[in-house]
Design brief:
8-stranded mixed sheet, globular, two-stranded parallel ribbon
Length: 481
């Protein structure tokens, strides 16, 4: 039977089940995306965009390095009136597509202001590949600093070559929302304003608060829901203590019998279980959380059997490989560019952001048995022993020093967050100033406002999007006076 293993080291969180392959020819290690969800497939192929390539510098900070590479971008003039704003959407740790602007709120926002739209793919992701592979030496050019210089250089060139002399507004979601806010702060002479959806602007090495928000979202859905998960965690603890390999392996449909003497494999399993629920919360849509809680409360014969059934359903019947050594070996040796961008993103977290969602807080139902050290172990095993906790902490400290953490000195940056989004715990929740407001959207999660509008959108979501259009419109109008 085909097997699937998913890295669940705290940098990853999104629904995977719908994208699992149906054949035995599979990439055995699939990342759970934490970026912006792609537009629904029913929207079809984008038509208004043109795919373009831009010759970009490899290293913006070394004048002696003249190497270049081709960066992909998409443009649309469908709603553009000359002199109107240019909306530069920065893709993050995913493959960019024309549809993520055309069929989302970004396109509606641009249309509301007669805007020109550009979707710029991030270096090292998608088809924007500045180096032959993702070997550790080649990853040295992957950083948010380089990516921001990409955006600034690109914008200046487009202004000159295409005559795009209207105000430039930079937009992003999730990690790229950080980039949008930071681009406005670093290059105020280039970017007039920024719209940052679900931006975790505080870099933080250990992020146990993520699972606390997951718990809060489930509590808000049904107060009895997390208690069932906690009971299942207690049952699993007993099975582990009793050495019941066969039952654990069967319950979770593991590819090989779990080695209970290997604490890394046990931690990997615990992480997998927690992220089944974390992914559902991070990308909560419609009544998915209510359905999960109803299933948990209705229950099987025991809470653990109920949780295990949800786990098996989540992975579509595929067996799951939770052997940590296999995971480390795969990402250490597979350095070719592919659809799986785990190596690139974990490198960024190890050197710049942290964001490791440990299971260490008592205020969540998944146990306190997966510490930060498990994420650091991934870094050292995959990238080398020099990638220590101290190195990662230094990178986190440098990011906050450079960009201001939760208190950046910015104007005309609009932040939005969903109340259910676990990432809002690292974002601004109150206005920085009258010119840097925050919109909190009740009952919604990660990047929902920037995603595809729907006829079933709530009044809170619709109002939030209208406020985004109005605030940006007010800034544009004020600039004309």
């Amino acid at each position: 039977m085909a097997r699937v293993a998913v890295v669940l080291l705290g940098v990853l969180a999104a629904a995977l089940a719908a994208s699992l392959p149906t054949t035995k020819v599979v990439n055995p290690y699939q990342i759970i995306r934490r970026g912006v969800p792609p537009p629904p497939t029913e929207f079809g192929a984008a038509k208004a965009h043109n795919t373009m390539w831009y010759t970009q510098k490899l290293d913006h900070f070394d004048a002696l390095n003249t190497d270049t590479w081709q960066q992909r971008y998409f443009i649309s003039t469908a709603t553009y009136v000359p002199g109107s704003p240019i909306f530069l959407y920065l893709a993050g740790e995913w493959e960019a597509s024309a549809g993520e602007v055309e069929f989302t709120f970004v396109g509606e926002l641009a249309a509301a202001h007669n805007g020109f739209t550009i979707d710029l793919e991030h270096r090292y992701y998608g088809q924007s590949r500045p180096v032959p592979d993702t070997s550790s030496d080649n990853l040295k050019y992957l950083s948010v600093d380089q990516a921001l210089e990409d955006a600034a250089t690109f914008a200046l060139d487009m202004k000159a070559s295409l005559g795009l002399d209207g105000p430039w507004i930079v937009v992003g979601g999730s990690y790229s929302a950080n980039m949008a806010a930071w681009a406005r702060a670093r290059y105020p002479h280039i970017f007039f304003a920024a719209y940052a959806s679900s931006a975790p602007i505080l870099a933080q090495l250990d992020f146990p608060e993520y699972m606390e928000v997951v718990n809060e979202a489930l509590l808000a859905t049904d107060p009895a829901c997390p208690a069932v998960i906690q009971q299942s965690t207690d049952e699993l603890d007993v099975l582990i203590a009793n050495g019941d390999v066969a039952q654990i392996t069967q319950l979770f449909n593991l590819y090989t019998p779990i080695d209970l003497a290997n604490e890394n494999d046990v931690m990997n399993l615990r992480s997998y279980v927690s992220y089944v629920f974390a992914g559902e919360v991070q990308y909560a849509r419609g009544d998915n959380l209510a359905q999960i809680c109803q299933t948990l409360i209705a229950g099987q014969s025991t809470p653990l059997e109920t949780v295990a059934q949800l786990f098996r359903d989540y992975f579509g019947g595929f067996q799951v490989d939770i052997v940590a050594a296999n995971m480390f070996e795969y990402y250490r040796t597979n350095i070719a560019f592919s659809d799986d961008i785990t190596r690139q993103w974990v490198y960024q977290t190890a050197t710049e952001f942290g964001y490791y969602q440990s299971l260490s807080s008592p205020d969540q139902p998944f146990g306190q048995n997966v510490p930060l050290s498990f994420s650091i172990l991934f870094n050292t095993e995959v990238f080398g022993p020099q990638f220590t906790q101290d190195v990662s902490q230094a990178g986190v400290d440098r990011t906050n020093l450079e960009y201001g953490g939760l208190n950046p000195d910015v104007t005309r940056v609009l932040y939005t967050h969903g109340s259910l989004d676990p990432w809002h715990a690292l974002g601004r929740e109150t206005d920085l100033s009258p010119e840097s407001p925050v919109i909190l959207i009740a009952g919604h999660s990660h990047c929902r406002d920037i995603g595809s509008p729907s006829s079933t959108d709530s009044a809170d979501l619709i109002n939030a999007r209208n406020r985004v259009i109005q605030i940006i419109g007010d800034w544009l109008a004020a600039a004309k006076k």
